[in-house]
Design brief:
Blueprint (H helix, E strand, L loop, with lengths): L25 H11 L6 E5 L6 H14 L4 E5 H4 L15 E5 L8 H16 L3 E6 L11 H7 L3 E4 L5 H15 L5 H10 L4 H18 L5 H9 L3
Parallel strand pairs: 1-4, 1-5, 2-3, 3-4
Helix pairs in contact: 1-2, 6-7, 6-8
InterPro entries: DnaA_dom, Hda, Hda_lid
Organism: Methylogaea oryzae
Protein name: DnaA regulatory inactivator Hda
């Protein structure tokens, strides 16, 4: 990592391509796999509401790139904005650079200038850039016209919500990562009685993992019902 970054950044090893349930987002998965291998579009722009897996795909892209000896970096701009755009210096050295939450720095003149010049350096060096935001390029509040046009240059893909079957597969997969087994009935109960966005479900699964371990119980519908009535 370039020296300007004031903190250690690590990708989440659990957010791999293998752990991603694509559902209607197969095109995004394929594009980022290609990007991690050094192919495809020089810029891939993902957008969609919170909880659809943008961060997961960016983490997975970095992991896959590193697995083939390509240098990569994942920068969550919502967390890094307070450190200033100087942390982007030298990032053109990365073979694959993933920028999350582009909208978090939109409207900040210094950040917008730094991103514009970084895009140019990455393009000139033949590197790959993956950007993610909560809206399409035309829908985020970027003031710099040149940056707005750069964001729309590459492949733009919208992420869509999973249907119930895919969401159940994603919940089951995440539970297995935590060491829990979820029956289809328990998974359906979760979807029927809990917030349905994946981020909320992941947090709930982590709490349930701790609760079942503490109680030395399996995750059953009665246990889940009791837990939801009296969350710890």
């Amino acid at each position: 990592m370039p020296r300007q970054i004031p903190l250690q950044l690590h990708v989440n090893p659990e957010q791999s391509f293998a752990a991603y349930v694509a559902g209607p987002n197969g095109a995004a998965l394929a594009a980022l796999r290609h990007c991690a291998e050094g192919g495809g579009e020089a810029l891939v722009y993902l957008w969609g509401e919170t909880g659809l897996g943008k961060t997961h795909l960016l983490n997975a892209c970095c992991q896959a790139a590193e697995a083939t000896d390509r240098r990569s970096a994942y920068l969550p701009l919502a967390e890094l904005r307070r450190y200033g755009p100087a942390l982007l210096e030298g990032m053109e050295q990365m073979d694959v650079l993933c920028l999350d939450d582009i909208q978090a720095v939109a409207g900040d003149a210094a950040w917008e200038q730094a991103l514009f010049h970084l895009f140019n350096r990455l393009r000139d060096g033949g590197k790959r850039l993956v950007a993610a935001a909560d809206a399409a390029p035309a829908g985020i509040a970027v003031d710099l016209p040149d940056l707005r046009s750069r964001l729309a240059w590459g492949l733009t893909l919208r992420l869509h919500p999973l249907d119930d079957d895919d969401k159940l597969a994603a919940v089951s997969g995440r539970a297995r990562q935590l060491g829990m087994e979820i029956t289809p009935a328990v998974g359906q109960y979760l979807l029927a009685h809990c917030p349905r966005d994946l981020a909320s479900l992941w947090r709930l699964l982590e709490r349930l993992d701790h609760a079942t371990l503490a109680a030395q119980r399996k995750l059953t519908i009665p246990f889940l019902k009791t837990y939801l009535e009296n969350p710890q």
